[in-house]
Amino acid sequence: MGLEEKLPSGVLLTTVEKVAGYARKGSLWPATFGLACCAIEMMATGGPRYDLARFGMEVFRASPRQADLMIVAGRVSQKMAPVLRQIYDQMPNPKWVLAMGVCASSGGMFNNYAVVQGVDHVVPVDMYLPGCPPRPEMLIDAILKIHDQIQDMKLGVNAVREQEQLEVAALTAAPTLEMRGLLR
Amino acid sequence: MSDQQSVSPAEAGLEVAASATVMPEDVRELEIIGVRHGAFSAQDGGDTSGFGGLVAPIVMPGPTERPYGGWFDAAADEIELALADQGLPMATAVERVVVDRDEITFVVRREHLLPFVTVLRDEPALRFEMCMGVNGVHYPADAGRELHAVYPFLSVTHNRRIRVEVTCPDSDARIPSIVSVYPANDWHERETYDFFGIVFEGHPALTRIEMPDDWPGHPQRKDYPLGGIPVEYKGAEVPPPDQRRAYT
Amino acid sequence: MSTDQSIADEGIVYEGELPVEDPYSLSYETGQGTVYTVSGGDWDSISTPDEGERERIVVNMGPQHPSTHGVLRLILELEGETVVDTRCGIGYLHTGIEKNMEYRTWTQGVTFVTRMDYLSPFFNETAYCLGVEKLLGVTDQIPERASTIRVLMMELNRISSHLVALATGGMELGALTAMTFGFRERELILDIFEMVTGLRMNSAFVRPGGVAQDITDDQVARIRETLPLLRKRMKDTADLLVDNAIWMGRTVGVGYLDLAGCMALGITGPILRSTGLPHDLRKSQPYCGYETYEFDVPTQDTCDAYGRFLIRVAEMQESIKLVEQALDRLRPGPVMIEDKKIAWPARLSIGGDGQGNSPEHIKEIMSQSMEALIHHFKLVTEGFTVPTGQVYSAIESPRGELGVHIVSDGGTRPYRVHYRDPSFNNLQATAAMSNGSMISDVIAAVASIDPVMGGVDR
């Protein structure tokens, strides 16, 4: 509002990437993948107090074919991992994955035979959100960080170039075991 | 009730000083399920505490003699009468009775489990309508009786609880299924089979319920590893929980 | 399956007979008739079945589904819209909590146990702690203030769990506003939990020997302020659905299970009370001082999903009464057991940077008493020991009888902990409740059972 008055003759200049990013992040539909306790906090985030609808995301699509963001909320057991992968495969591109909670990020407190130690063993993850369970505000913070990622997403040739750069950076990066310091 | 695992400490292979073992008055036999070596479970040597030489038996509460106290005696009499009506002497069906912490446990031989629980359900003075599932417990050191299946029962009419325990050896892990008497145990027996490998004979559909259908092994047995992975953290590596030092 | 399979370099080699010529063919014969495999868009390639064969479809309402109350897999055999057989596939949330507890101390077990039935964490914790205290033999040494706080937290948890039951049940049957209302009310209660324990869910607050932290007077005042608002809003949520013609049309007569069926299947909780039997462990085998509180046990006698829903609404009102009584009888006193060999040693307080050990306690253990430091250290790292034996302790959770069977071998770690979770048991009734009805009735029946898959799979 008011942007039109500031612009000379009501014209806005932008790039295709920015408009596409803005449109994509503006109505990112999550897929219901609530598993355990984090699912309840995810439902609370969709509830009236911590409202996800203000980000365009209150519509939790049950069908993965209509969803963009898979919020893996809860511990993924060995029996559930193939189902998780199948749902991920059924989502159309572009898709993002948010690992909500420590159980989805790294197996959490359940370092045992039954839980997949981090959902990134099964699907590629864009955002890891620690917490047991993370507060709704923390989930919204993670979602907004994904929104920033989506806003800055590159298209076409830029995307290919960026992929190559990321690959080179990842191949030459120091492994976690050799990192020092606070890692903040 | 005299042919169960009653061992004196010497028979159990423990070297005990002559003056060491002092048994309380009312304990006739010991039920030893294992031996605890040392105090810190340190397996890798290097235990400089001096506690490493401790050898202590792990003793579960032993059989109780009559009178049991409270309503337990009346219930045990009812069971004995009802079993006798079916031609089954109490001493054949029941190995021993343990009264501990205000709860009574009947340790029943597995071949006589079905008549026993039928009696529990049908006798008017007993009327234990609900079976609260089966729990498996694995005692690997209790040779010949490694797997225990524990059945808690609740009587809604008389508002009381009872427990039935059945043992079976690892080599022959079969226990009759009580689903025909208590249909509620359907999934509980499947779960106990899934986690311990006890085959419940007569169960309508004994398959894995919690683990994936083709999972090898039975996870909650003591010889099945916890299965965790070591965790890297800021230049250090933390071993999984079952490989850390334990203070038991 | 074939008798011998080996993955050689050329691929999988079968030896012996395959039961099926080609598993990916469109149709093959089995002992029970012809099985057709279709994957969409090719319905007309199936030949029409013969006259004598009934057309039976097996539909999988898979683990990922918005209406199956969590990761529950329902395998339905359908004839048209009628359900002929229902099978539940569970285990998609199995976490191995019971085995993991064997490698943690008795107090650390509380943090594991709390995450089983994640909608009623305080009930899991209390059942476990009551069992451990029974094994220790200190049930009558638990301070009264600790028992009162336990009752307070449990009853608030009961309200929040029933609100989620109403909310998700409503959402599954299409009443989305019930979801919004239910979660709004639940936020009031989660605020109270956060104020008292520090966390909204899964707080590990109830520990063997008492509770972790005391509740202050202004927290009590805040709870008292919230109660009238909560009561009014609960009534609003319930009014959305009670006497609602569409809701009644979906739930009256649905999921019928009478007393004989409940007894045979070992069902407890609102399902049993909907048959008319007022069986509630808080009344029949009281714990934590419940025998001194005044409350009713609501029952219905319609044995259907609507009756269970009405019972949950009434139980929420009873819980508010219990919360008020618990607040009234809080007297100053300790909240942890006197016996210093069992009591959790830390004294927590709120400081400038959040919740942590109180400065007085830090001063005592760091500068004043070496023994206090050692004592604190040993209790936290090694934990207390529990004498050998086994015990079964049961409480009334929002879903039914939550029982825990604990076996101790005399050490600092549990030897075996097994939970008899009410949802695990009650889910067996799905087949009995929904065979012969329509698919939408299966959803209503499962919603009335209100299973929490964390408790079912553990």
Describe the structure.
The complex is a heterotrimer of chains A (about 180), B (about 250) and C (about 450). By secondary structure, chain A is an alpha/beta fold. Chain A is built from 7 helices and 4 strands. Chain A has helices at about 5, 15-25, 35-45, 80-90, 100-105, 135-150, 155-170, and strands spanning about 30, 70-75, 95-100, 125-130. A 4-stranded parallel beta sheet of chain A has the order 1-2-3-4. In chain A, strand 2 (about 70-75), helix 4 and strand 3 (about 95-100) form a beta-alpha-beta unit. In chain A, helix 2 (about 15-25) runs antiparallel to helix 6 (about 135-150). The longest helix of chain A is centred in the last third of the chain and has 17 residues, at about 155-170. Chain A starts with a helix and ends in a 12-residue tail after the last helix. Chain B is built from 4 helices and 12 strands, in the order ββααββαβββββαβββ. With about 450 residues, chain C is of the alpha+beta class. Helices cover about 45% and strands about 15% of the residues of chain C. Chain C contains 17 helices and 14 strands. Chain C has helices at about 95-100, 110-115, 120-135, 145-170, 175-195, 215-240, 245-250, 260-265, 270-275, 280-285, 305-330, 360-370, 370-380, 420-425, 430-435, 440-450, 455; strands at about 5-10, 10-15, 25-30, 35, 55-60, 75-80, 80-90, 205, 210, 350, 355, 390-395, 400-410, 415-420. In chain C, the strands form 6 sheets. A 3-stranded antiparallel beta sheet of chain C has the order 5-6-7. In chain C, strands 12-13-14 form a 3-stranded antiparallel beta sheet. In chain C, strand 1 and strand 2 (about 10-15) form a beta hairpin. Chain C is globular. Chain C starts with a strand and ends with a helix. The model of chain C is unreliable at about 1-15 (pLDDT under 50). Chains in contact: A-B, A-C, B-C. Chains A and C meet through helix 3 of A and helix 1, helix 5 and helix 17 of C.
Helix content of chain C: 40-55%
Radius of gyration of chain C: 26 Å
| Total beta strand runs of chain A | 4
- Through-space gap between termini of chain A: 38 Å
Mean pLDDT of chain A: 87
Give the amount of beta strand of chain C, in percent.
15-25%
Strand content of chain A: 5-15%
Number of helices of chain C: 17
Tell me, briefly, the overall form of chain C: globular
Helix proportion range of chain A: 40-55%
Major sheet of chain C: 3 strands, antiparallel
Structural class of chain C: alpha+beta
Question: What's the pLDDT, averaged over the residues of chain C?
Answer: 85
